[in-house]
Specification:
Strands 1-8-3-6 form a 4-stranded antiparallel sheet. A hairpin with a 6-residue loop joins β4 and β5. The longest helix has 24 residues. The chain has 10 helices and 10 strands. The protein starts with a helix and ends with a helix. The protein is elongated, with a radius of gyration of 20 Å. α8 crosses α9. By secondary structure, it is an alpha+beta fold.
Length: about 240
């Protein structure tokens, strides 16, 4: 009983701020928390077609995980999402009950809450109104994926990089958030390009004073200039 109470107290805020479980009544949230246990995964852990993603639902407590795909020969890679605090996976398995052929890698030391998928489905059957949040989260992810596909199909590499930097910039501090500390190779995976091409474009932005570039570290020095450059790119379309 003491362990259960401690777990509820420790992770109440996680569920409260997770879009899937927002605005729940306390009894429903507390009952849900009892289903979860905590796991820690070290940085650079590669989770390849892990069976547990079919049988468990995970909420990220801290750290970042990239969700990606590779071609059959392992020569090309594309990052679909960077998941971070309060994100949930595998939402696809929760919705359709089918295995999801996708890869995950920890970009940091990661802490998650994990719960058996079957138990989560039973919980939703008891609290069906909570499914509204699942639809909201799924819709948001679908829109992000739609925008991603549109960009890699129709936008230039330069435009994709500008959009990535602007989207991940904190408007007040100008600090990069989800992509902070990622290598040019990782950024290339996010925009559907190569490390060499990405490096060339970043160096150009560095020369015009928009960003600072050091080893595995990008810093925005003039966000307004990046926004202006993007507007000029889009006018050319």
């Amino acid at each position: 009983m003491h362990r259960a109470t401690t777990l509820i107290t420790k992770h109440q805020a996680v569920l409260k701020d997770c879009i899937l479980f927002k605005n729940l009544e306390d009894p429903a949230r507390d009952r849900l928390l009892l289903l979860f246990h905590e796991e820690e995964w070290p940085k650079k852990s590669c989770l390849l077609h892990n069976e547990s993603f079919f049988f468990h639902l995970y909420i990220i407590v801290s750290g970042r995980i990239k969700m990606y795909q590779v071609d059959n020969y392992g020569e090309k890679e594309i990052t679909l999402f960077i998941l971070s605090k309060h994100d949930v996976f595998d939402i696809y398995c929760l919705l359709d009950g089918c295995k999801h052929d996708v890869f995950y890698e920890c970009l940091d030391n990661v802490k998650v809450l994990a719960a058996p998928m079957d138990e989560i489905r039973k919980w939703y059957s008891q609290y069906p109104s909570a499914m509204t949040n699942v639809l909201l989260y799924s819709g948001r992810q679908m829109r992000l994926l739609e925008n991603f596909v549109t960009d890699i199909t129709f936008s230039s590499i330069s435009t994709r990089i500008l959009k990535l930097l602007i989207k991940n910039a904190n408007r007040k501090s100008q600090n990069l958030e989800k992509i902070n500390g990622l290598s040019n190779k990782e950024i290339a995976y996010m925009v559907g390009s190569t490390r060499t091409v990405v490096n060339r474009h970043l160096q150009k932005l560095k020369r015009n004073g928009s960003i600072k570039v050091t080893r595995n570290h990008l810093e925005i020095t003039d966000l307004s200039k990046l926004i202006h450059l993007l507007e000029l790119q889009q006018q050319k379309i």
